[in-house]
Design the sequence.
């Protein structure tokens, strides 16, 4: 990944006062906001809090999961890379999201690498704590099933797009997802990033940087967008939506 793998330092939960989870700013978004008082007490006693710097790896492809991570603060990119260094971004995760739960539940090594995009706080649930919550809290299994189902559906949609959608269509959809209409939430769960380099866009869409640059220039010459460094201004949203629907 271009940087040294280091273990993130342990820390006390950064949220105050001392009852932590009940006052946590992420509580409304947190996957575990349903825990009963007894389970919450055990959760607070056995979880492991860590602070990660920007672009620090949480886990690497091929490692064996020992538990589940919860992203409390920050943003994470999950990606795969080949031996030639080509990278494909699979998903972005933000506050309250689980990280690495699918390989853990399947008993398989991590099939991708998770890396922080900015300074982040991550909570780790070791295996015995996960198993306790699964036994004591039926809602946990229901939520996990819904989450895994959504991941599977998004993966199938993404695979369909790579197979049958043109580079213009994919790029138009990506721009629309990070440039929603005024007053609307972004479609991407990554809240800390609005502008992407050409290489980052290519890694998201399975395209070459040259194809991204060429297609962006075409959009600009057609008056659909305006480029200013990394920033992409949508000038004709209707036209961009039309391109996104093409195959």
Sequence:
């Amino acid at each position: 990944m271009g940087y040294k793998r280091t273990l993130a330092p342990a820390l006390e939960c950064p949220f105050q006062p001392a009852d932590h989870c009940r006052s946590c700013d992420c509580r409304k978004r947190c996957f575990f906001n349903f825990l009963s008082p007894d389970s919450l007490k055990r959760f607070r006693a056995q979880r492991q809090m860590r602070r990660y710097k920007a672009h620090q790896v949480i886990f690497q492809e091929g490692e064996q999961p020992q538990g589940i991570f919860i992203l409390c603060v920050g943003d994470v990119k999950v990606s795969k890379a080949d031996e030639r260094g080509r990278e494909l971004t699979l998903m972005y995760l933000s506050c309250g999201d689980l990280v690495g739960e699918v390989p853990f539940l399947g008993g398989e090594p991590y099939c991708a690498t998770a890396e922080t995009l900015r300074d982040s706080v991550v909570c780790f649930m070791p295996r015995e704590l996960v198993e306790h919550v699964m036994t004591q809290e039926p809602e946990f299994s229901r939520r996990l099933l819904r989450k895994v189902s959504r991941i599977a559906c998004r993966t199938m949609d993404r695979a369909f797009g790579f197979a049958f959608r043109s580079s213009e269509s994919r790029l138009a959809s990506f721009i629309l997802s990070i440039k929603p209409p005024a007053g609307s939430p972004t479609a991407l769960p990554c809240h800390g990033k609005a502008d992407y380099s050409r290489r980052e866009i290519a890694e998201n869409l399975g395209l070459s940087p040259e194809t991204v640059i060429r297609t962006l220039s075409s959009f600009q010459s057609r008056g659909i967008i305006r480029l200013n460094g990394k920033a992409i201004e949508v000038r004709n949203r209707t036209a961009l939506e039309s391109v996104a629907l093409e195959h």
Remarks:
- The chain has two domains: 20-160, 166-245.
- Residues 166-245 form a domain with the Arc Repressor Mutant, subunit A fold (CATH 1.10.10.10).
- Residues 14-19 have pLDDT under 50 and may be disordered.
- The radius of gyration is 20 Å.
